Amino acid sequence: MNDDPLGWAGRVMQWLGFASRLVLVNVLFVAGTLAGLVLFGLFPAAVAATTILARLRLGGAGDNSAGENSAGDHVVRDFIRVYRAQFRHTNRVGGIFWLAAVVLLLNVLTVLVPSGADLSSPVPAVLLVLAAVAGLGTLAAAAVAVSLCSRYRDSVNSVWRTAFALPLVSPLMGLSVLATLVAAVVIFAAMPVLVPLVGASLPLLLSGWVVDRRLAGLEASQAGGAAAPTPPEAARHTEPAAA
Length: 243
Known about the structure:
Layout: H1 7-35, H2 42-57, H3 68-115, H4 122-151, H5 156-169, H6 171-190, H7 195-198, H8 201-223, H9 232-235
């Protein structure tokens, strides 16, 4: 007797539906980024996409019986709603990461240009390694900030503090986020055809899942009275992000 009411065919259709919505979220992310001229559109699009992807993981965001077109319309409508509601807030949060990216780029150029890319001297090599470490840390913090904005509605300063502190006090989470991003890059390098399909939605799905698990663990620890090894902002469940 088959205990699975859907059967293998139903499971296949579910996965195909999930994959199609993953592609749709990727298209919406690109459209939202371009709509904000990249500089002002990247973070709002990332937060909106992460919000939708979190619902997809839980079986929501258009996972209904009304048909694929209705599900797609639901995803588009929710993405636009979150994008508009979070536009100003996420751009304020993202400002510090754009600034960090510019500073890191200038540091790398300062090291490479005078030395003519000669890394035989240990000083330029050490500076480049430090810049790479700082860049990876900033990338992990940006991923945490995106998940925080999609999950809560904390102040900008609170998001910054938690985003930079959480990867330090939860190094396994930080390394896992970076590992998922590296894995996505490897997959896309091996299969470039996937880039226009899920080039943004897949990394956001994976990194959002890792960070959300850690944040859910902190919420559970706080609810159970356990001492959480992170700043209070990371564990406090505030007003949920507008959706």
